[in-house]
């Protein structure tokens, strides 16, 4: 080892025969220990030696911490934001219902398939259990521990969401590290900052949507794409297409064509890779899902047939062709959206990557039913283009004209943060069903058996099996009950979208987000809320009304 220790130790003792390299940092303490022993053997003051040992220890800790933050600092930032979203908004919506209920059933019913939720509420189209099974299996040790201590199942929901978030953020890290290798540290930093200030990507990163399960594989494919590993790129996209989201085919096609045109892979290699991965992926999903669905099926093929061939997805609403470019992407990317366009003009290296992704969004725009989550896979590449533009502005910030651009960019970051905060508040108030059931559980802690009916609106806006409690609570989600029929049913409580129901008295209401209003005075932007879910009690159960209830507004 080598060191210029005198300047570090500030001691008259000469240690010129040592030299400490960065990689020898942990051995620094051993050198100090040798020096202390030498000092003491010469009659030196022990107190001074001890002080210097403590100083050496402090330097070692700082060195280790710096190295850790350099390697994992961005992951800690993004992970903290994603965890904050999951903890503060633990409830889920109808889009997530299949995977949420599947994870619950795998964790709590295990091999007892007859009790699984999907057999009673199969949904419009079947989905694969593979993603839910992987996440639930990894979360199962902690969930089992929670069961032993009778901890509320809502914490099990948080656990599976954290596991899913880990997968998504790990895939983003894989892509980000390739960004650093190919484009440099500054571009990597801006890439992470853009993700941090964008609300939607991290908010949805822990939500068990089929799109998010596919999104993790898409991020992996992007990392391999930058790395130049064409076969791994294709394999990730093929698995994402055949198992999790059939519409990833619209991304697989343009990227596969780019790999062929750029001669990153030969046609024969692409065919071999495609066939082997296709057979493996279809074989796994057909075998596994046929057992759980109790019939032979390939889930994503049925989804493809329903959405693309029959075009039934338009029954859930339509948007104009330009909606992704004029509404969805600007809201999702914020300041990165205009910078993305500038990045394409400033840096030719990004063009080979952004053209296939742009074609993906363009092709998706032809489908009438549109949602932001459908094109999540495009955002990382668009963010990369924006990061290249931002790094160019930052690196030239000391030049006169670029100084102005840099100030505008910094101001845009602040505006993006404000918009993300506003969007978070709106989303927080978008799960009234979950908050209503939680309020009911907290208000009634008696041991008398009670039956709660949860209507469709409440169920799709925050209620899942993870929200349910054990005895004396029982739950019913029977659909199609008209208002007049409730009076003849023996429900203790109703969670319903109607404020007045014959035979029941309203105990409390939970408000939800209903819109945004702009004003000419502070605050300029005002979030509107209105009652969404009402908790009713059967008037025959008089004991319920002995307690104080907030009442309905």
TrEMBL record:
Catalyzed reactions per annotation: an alpha-D-Man-(1->2)-alpha-D-Man-(1->2)-alpha-D-Man-(1->3)-[alpha-D-Man-(1->2)-alpha-D-Man-(1->3)-alpha-D-Man-(1->6)]-beta-D-Man-(1->4)-beta-D-GlcNAc-(1->4)-alpha-D-GlcNAc-diphospho-di-trans,poly-cis-dolichol + a di-trans,poly-cis-dolichyl beta-D-mannosyl phosphate = an alpha-D-Man-(1->2)-alpha-D-Man-(1->2)-alpha-D-Man-(1->3)-[alpha-D-Man-(1->2)-alpha-D-Man-(1->3)-[alpha-D-Man-(1->6)]-alpha-D-Man-(1->6)]-beta-D-Man-(1->4)-beta-D-GlcNAc-(1->4)-alpha-D-GlcNAc-diphospho-di-trans,poly-cis-dolichol + a di-trans,poly-cis-dolichyl phosphate + H(+)
Catalytic EC class: transferase
Topological relation to the membrane, as annotated: Multi-pass membrane protein
One GO CC annotation: endoplasmic reticulum membrane
Keywords of this entry: Endoplasmic reticulum, Glycosyltransferase, Membrane, Transferase, Transmembrane, Transmembrane helix
Free-text function comment from the UniProt entry: Mannosyltransferase that operates in the biosynthetic pathway of dolichol-linked oligosaccharides, the glycan precursors employed in protein asparagine (N)-glycosylation. The assembly of dolichol-linked oligosaccharides begins on the cytosolic side of the endoplasmic reticulum membrane and finishes in its lumen. The sequential addition of sugars to dolichol pyrophosphate produces dolichol-linked oligosaccharides containing fourteen sugars, including two GlcNAcs, nine mannoses and three glucoses.
Family, per entry: Belongs to the glycosyltransferase 22 family.
Entry protein name: Mannosyltransferase
Organism the protein comes from: Rhynchospora breviuscula
């Amino acid at each position: 080892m080598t060191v210029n220790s005198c300047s570090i130790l500030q001691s008259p003792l000469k240690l010129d025969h040592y030299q400490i390299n960065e990689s020898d940092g942990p051995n620094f303490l051993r050198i100090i220990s040798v020096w202390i022993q030498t000092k003491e053997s010469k009659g030196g003051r022990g107190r001074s030696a001890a002080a210097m040992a403590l100083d050496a220890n402090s330097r070692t800790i700082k060195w280790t911490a710096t190295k850790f933050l350099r390697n994992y600092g961005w992951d800690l930032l993004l992970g903290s934001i994603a965890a904050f979203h999951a903890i503060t908004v633990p409830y889920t919506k109808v889009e997530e219902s299949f995977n949420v209920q599947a994870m619950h059933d795998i964790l709590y019913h295990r091999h007892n398939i007859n009790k699984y939720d999907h057999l009673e509420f199969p949904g419009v189209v079947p989905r694969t259990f593979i993603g839910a099974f992987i996440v639930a299996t990894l979360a199962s040790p902690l969930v089992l521990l929670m069961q032993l201590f009778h901890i509320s199942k809502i914490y099990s929901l948080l656990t599976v969401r954290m596991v899913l978030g880990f997968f998504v953020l790990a895939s983003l890290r894989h892509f980000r590290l390739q960004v650093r290798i190919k484009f440099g540290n500054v571009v990597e930093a801006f890439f992470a900052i853009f993700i941090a200030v964008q609300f939607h990507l991290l908010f949805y990163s822990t939500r068990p949507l089929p799109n998010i399960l596919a999104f993790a594989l898409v991020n992996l494919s992007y990392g391999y794409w930058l790395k130049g590993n064409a076969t791994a790129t294709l394999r990730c996209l093929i698995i994402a297409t055949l198992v999790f989201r059939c519409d990833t085919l619209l991304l697989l096609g343009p990227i596969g064509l780019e790999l062929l045109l750029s001669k990153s892979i030969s046609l024969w290699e692409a065919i071999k890779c495609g066939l082997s991965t296709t057979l493996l992926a279809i074989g796994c999903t057909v075998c596994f899902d046929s057992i759980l669905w109790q019939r032979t099926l390939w889930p994503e093929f049925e989804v493809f047939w329903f959405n693309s061939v029959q075009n039934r997805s338009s029954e859930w609403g339509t948007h104009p062709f330009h909606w992704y470019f004029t509404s969805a992407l600007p809201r999702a990317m914020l300041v990165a959206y205009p910078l993305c366009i500038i990045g394409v003009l400033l840096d030719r290296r990004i063009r080979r990557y952004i053209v296939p992704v742009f074609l993906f969004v363009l092709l998706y725009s032809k489908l009438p039913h549109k949602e932001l989550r459908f094109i999540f896979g495009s955002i990382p590449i668009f963010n990369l283009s924006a990061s290249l533009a931002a790094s160019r502005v930052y690196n030239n910030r000391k030049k006169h004209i670029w100084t102005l651009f840099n100030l505008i960019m910094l101001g845009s970051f602040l505006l993006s943060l404000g918009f993300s905060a506003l969007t978070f508040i709106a989303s927080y108030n978008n799960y009234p069903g979950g908050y209503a059931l939680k309020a009911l559980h907290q208000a009634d802690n008696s041991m008398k058996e009670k039956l709660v009916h949860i209507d469709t609106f409440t169920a799709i806006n925050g209620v899942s099996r993870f929200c349910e409690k054990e005895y004396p609570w029982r739950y019913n989600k029977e659909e199609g009950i008209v208002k007049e029929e409730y009076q003849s049913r023996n429900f203790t409580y109703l969670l319903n979208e109607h404020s007045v129901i014959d035979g029941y008295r309203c105990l409390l209401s939970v408000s939800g987000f209903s819109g945004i209003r702009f004003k000419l005075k502070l605050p300029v932007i005002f979030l509107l809320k209105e009652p969404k879910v009402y908790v009713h009690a059967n008037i025959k159960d008089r004991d319920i009304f002995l307690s104080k209830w907030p009442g309905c507004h």
